[in-house]
Design a protein that fits this description.
The complex is a heterodimer of chains A (334) and B (337). With 334 residues, chain A is mostly helical. Chain A has a domain of 230 residues: MetI-like (MetI-like fold, Orthogonal Bundle). Chain A has 14 helices and four strands. In chain A, helix 6 packs parallel to helix 9 and helix 6 packs antiparallel against helix 12. The termini of chain A are close together. Chain B is built from 14 helices and four strands. In chain B, the strands form two sheets. Chain B has a two-stranded antiparallel sheet. Chain B has a two-stranded antiparallel sheet with strand order 3-4. Helix content of chain B is 73%, strand content 4%. In chain B, helix 6 runs antiparallel to helix 11. Chain B folds into two domains: 97 residues, no CATH class; 227 residues, Orthogonal Bundle (MetI-like fold), CATH 1.10.3720. The chains are: A mainly alpha (334), B mainly alpha (337). At the A-B interface, helix 7, helix 8, strand 3, helix 12 and helix 13 of A face helix 1, helix 2, helix 7, helix 8 and helix 10 of B.
Chain lengths: 334, 337
Amino acid sequence: MVVGPDASISDQVPVGEPPAEAEGSQKAIEGRSLGQIAWRRLKRDKAAMAGGIVIILLILVAIFAPLIVNAWGYDPNSFHQDAMDPATQAPLSKFPWGAFDSKHLMGVEPPFGRDIFSRVLYGARISLLIAFLATLLSVVIGATLGLIAGYLGGWVDWLISRAMDLFLAFPILVFAIALAGVIPDKAFGLSGDTLRIVLLIFIIGFFNWGYMARIVRGQTLSLREREFVDASRSLGARSGYILRKELLPNLVAPILIYATLLIPTNILFEAGLSYLGVGIRPPTATWGGMLSDAVHYYTIPHYMFWPGLAIFITVLAFNLFGDGLRDALDPKTR
Amino acid sequence: MIAYIIRRLFGAVLTLLIVSMITFGIFYLVPRWAGGTAEDLASRYVGRTASPEAVAEAAKALGLTDNFFKQYWDWLHAIFAGRDFIFGGSTYHCPAPCLGYSFIGRNPVLPDILDRLPVTASLAFGAAIIWVILGVSTGVLSALKRGSIFDRAAMGFALGGVSLPIFWTGLVSLVIFSYGLGWTARGGSYTPIEQNPLDWAYDLLLPWITLALLFSAAYARLTRAGMLETMGEDYIRTARAKGLRERTVVTKHGLRAALTPIATIFGLDVGLLLGGAVLTESTFSLPGIGKYAIDAITASDMPKVMGFVIFSAGFVVIANLIVDVVYAVIDPRVRLA
């Protein structure tokens, strides 16, 4: 945006439109949906596209981890004493960064020689599963409550807004630690990893809806005063219909943006909980859990390097893509 | 203004009550939903080796067999009046303000937490000073030189910074700077400031820098975004149009408005950290409140964990209160009505 004495006139005219528009004007003028515009912008954003590609690769790796490990690697929980130095009990590595041979790509971890490559791969499953489902839960709770608060107003809005403030001000990590700590090994008819995964999804999802609700509420407040909502209401539409068919489609963009940006936060969150020992329990492979073991073996740098790098790349990819998505969908940014 | 502060104070007390109720619910209701009985809970407090009779007696003495509201009331009452637990032939006295009594450590929880507060406070305030200076100045410069090499590099680093987990950067920096190069203190070292301020700073240097770098990244991004938005406002154009110097426009008109939301987030972050920088403290083995909580969880010492949760929630609520009041002072747009 041009700021200065001469900006008042030029502001109204779109300056610096790419010349590509010229060839389009020869045909009939086509209306483009928000999705199409966003996609065109996103395609031009190299960083966001790189992030998106990494995300797709990560999801594929997570889904097919057992197949990949089967074809080229080892079981994440089997021991490999052959890759350990019998005298020092330290992993042997023949190549930099821990690689031992063509199958132990990232070397093995002390003290039993479990394969780091397959554990990092399996860690992606837990990390992405929890992050995605927890985000979904936050989005469902947050969007529903935000929509209701913004649309109904009055005491409902007051109540939901206060709950929102409360959850936004919560020391989430502290509560998650407390909750993860009090649940016994068997509960709700579940046990072991399944219980911990379900638990983490609920904890992370349940405590994180505040921000989403605030965004959706703010947007709903301004949307409900718009003419198309009035028009719909005067045609006899009921509140439920207006919420679902008139308001929700207009809220897809902000919900999508903040959901994408919530995923990396949740990945860090799960890794943090597992690192602290209140998340997924060993021997199941998680990135946070691997780092928490690696603390005791700081003389073996490759042990802490790979899981940390996995967290970093995953979170960075989601952040890049989320930032790009926001720029592409938000008309204010360009 | 006074009326506003009083109203906010009432709000804060109410929030604390609700937070304590939720916390209480987590510790007393959730285990029951998960299928635990009063005896199961009591056995955590008297140890797994105790006889069934001793466990039943403890469950009764601790009030675990009472209904939720009675238990909550007793717990709330103990904060103001203290509480005695009598079972197994001994009396455990928890003086007011009683946030809980650890039957494993055989001591009240609150004094322990307060003992550790200076460690956490040193960590939080030291890091906060670094990250505010570094983060905000980077953000402002980036916004003013938008699109420049500095902006691109700074934002690239910032994006990397917000994608890094503190427990990994902490670990890696410990391995490099402490165990490798020997420049900084090893994990687990802490000297109280009143003993030797130089050693205090030396021991905390690495945790400060590690924590501050991650927060700086987030603050640089926030400041840049806020600054860009503010500098596009009409009143900035007006300020320029009436011939003010660029520096005045940036500092008096731009920065002030852009920094108000940052100040809010800053208050909350410091409050959150004061309630226990759990990840940082466990990575650097600093004997602060967060480490206390993690040790308590490892030992399944639930009264300690619960005391910690209430304590740190209290910090966040207080931080919220201070932030709201400060906000009303520095932002003329906030209406006090």
